[in-house]
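Handout, section B. The chain below has 161 residues.
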Amino acid sequence: MEAFKEFFGRHRARVLWTALLLLHICFIYHNSLTPAVISSQQSGTVLALARAILSGIGLPEAWLTEHIIRKTAHFAEYALLGFLLWNSLRCYRPAGPLWTALQAWLTVLIPLVDETLQLVTEGRSGQVDDVWLDIAGVCFGTLFAFAVRQLGRRRAGGGED
């Protein structure tokens, strides 16, 4: 137990970012393994809530569809993945080209596995356009993580970790 405490103490950020990353990947893959009927019910619930909010604040809501909700969810969960992936890899401090290659490889691999899982899920289908949307989400999350990091460094006077 002492060895674990010592390791965790020295590598706290690495352990936490990696755990969050792995949990989020499990969440994404769990969603892909959810049968279409259940997934559609979940999207319908979010759609009804979003429409009620729009209507409640006096904005039109008829334009909001389940398709938009689903695509927005795809982008958002992958943007979070990009944020977590960038922060996790940063903790391991790989060399420049290695970091870039690993980030790029995982940016493509995780969405490909996600859509492949949907090929074996009842009522679901893997979609090439979803792979591209997911990759765009990862790229957005990665750029957001980088921007947050740069902003933090500027506010701290440009110091290294």
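Note. The longest helix spans residues 128-155. Compare this with the example in section A.
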